[in-house]
Amino acid sequence: MPRTVDPVGRRHDLAEAVWRVVRRDGLDGASVRAVAREAGLSMGSLRHYFGTQSELLVFAMRLVIDRIEQRVASLRVPDDPRRAAETVLRELLPLDDERRAENEVWLAFTARALVDPALRALRDEGYDLLRDACLGWVRLLVGPERAPVDVDVETDRLFALLDGLAVHAAMRPAHCSPELLTTVLSRHLDDLATR
């Protein structure tokens, strides 16, 4: 009897193979041949799931967004707005192996998005999702009664902080421990919530 293959699971497996190749060899090393070899498949088998290398790369980049959204959706978020913000925003920082992999892959794809329109659209979608999330947390933390706070500026500060911490963690992981990343985020949120 022929073995049944879960096509959704196989597509995710192939995207994870892309991630491994990208982390090891860079995005230029993520050819269809290299990804098929990493996944233990023939190139013909890989093409049953993705018609082009571009489709494969877009799916692998999309998987970063999907995983973060799934992780955030499964959180038990505290009622206190300050604690809730930290609980959710910590999920965006590369604090463990899974999130470090997502971060490194996202940064590699973001660089390629400068010259790849399909990846650029996905990069922009990710940017908009994160900025909207930052805006929502800033509004919740400062509240309408704190009129002197410029919500747009504070949103961009929070967004830049998260982005900057992610880039620093990828570029100099030895200098960016999970404790440092969470301390910087926590102090920023304290400042925002009590200003």
What do these coordinates show?
This protein has 195 residues and is mostly helical. The chain is built from nine helices and no strands. It has helices spanning 7-25, 32-39, 43-47, 53-73, 81-89, 97-112, 117-142, 151-171, 178-194. The longest helix is centred in the middle third of the chain and has 26 residues, at 117-142. The model has no long low-confidence stretch (mean pLDDT 93).
Give the SSE layout.
Layout lengths: L6 H19 L6 H8 L3 H5 L5 H21 L7 H9 L7 H16 L4 H26 L8 H21 L6 H17 L1
β content, as a range?
Answer: under 5%
Order of helices and strands: HHHHHHHHH
pLDDT < 50 stretches: none
Percentage of residues in helical conformation: over 70%
Provide keyphrases for this structure:
mainly alpha, 195 residues, Tetracycline Repressor, domain 2
Short description:
With 195 residues, the chain is mainly alpha-helical.
